[in-house]
Batch of 2 targets.
Target 1
Amino acid sequence: LERPGYPVLRVTRTPLAGGGLALDIDQIQFDAAPRFRLPLTLEFTAPDGPQRTQLWLEADSSQRFELPQISADAAVTLDPDAVLLMRTVEAAAPTPASPADARGISLKNP
C-alpha cells in the first residue's frame, strides 16, 4: 500500500436504450481520501452461464461503463473473488418499470 484509505464505490445500474446495461460507479470516500485507479472484475449471468469482464476504474470521482453485452436484467457481481480492499454500496434505483428491472447488484465486500 502506498497511501492511506481504501475506495468506497457507489454503484448505480441503468438499462441502455438499445439493450445492455450501464453502470455508474462513483468513488465516494471522504474528500481528503485519495481516489484510486484499480482493476474491477464483474461477473454477470449470460444465457450460456456466468461470464466475466474486467474494467479499469480511473482515479476519477465518477465513471460510466456502458456494457451492451450484459442484459439489463442480468445479475451482476462486483469483485466476485473479493480480492480488492474496498467497500461498495448500491445506489437507490428509481422505481423499476418492470420486475426484471428490479434486479440488483451483488456486492461481495460491503
Note: Strands lie at 8-15, 21-27, 38-44, 51-57, 62-67, 76-78, 87-90, 105-107.
Target 2
Amino acid sequence: SLVGSEMCIRDRFKVQPIYPRRAKERNMEGYVIVAFTITESGTIEEPYVMEGKCRSAANREGQFNECSMFNSATLRAASKLKYKPTVRDGRAVAVTDVPHKFSFELEQDS
C-alpha cells in the first residue's frame, strides 16, 4: 500500500460533520485532523485522530488548545468519505495514513 503524503488524492464525496451540540452551547470552534486508509474501492478504513484543537468563537485571535469535543463527530464524518480509487500500474491500491482536516466554525451573528 502507499502512503497518502506521496500522492494527489481526490475526494469524490465531501462530508460535513455534524456540529456537536455541547461545542455549540459553549461557543467553541475548532478543527480535527484525522488520518485513515483509503481502500482499493475508495472507501475509508481505520480512521484515527491525529490532532484535535478548539478555541472560543468569541476570541478568534486566541490560541487553539488541545481538546477532544469534535473528535467523535469527525470520526463519524470521516468514515463516510469516498475517494476515487488510486490506480498504480493499472490496478487499484490501498493508500494508508491519508490526512484530512475537518474545521468547525460557527456562523457569526452580524
Note: The first strand starts at residue 2 and ends at 3.
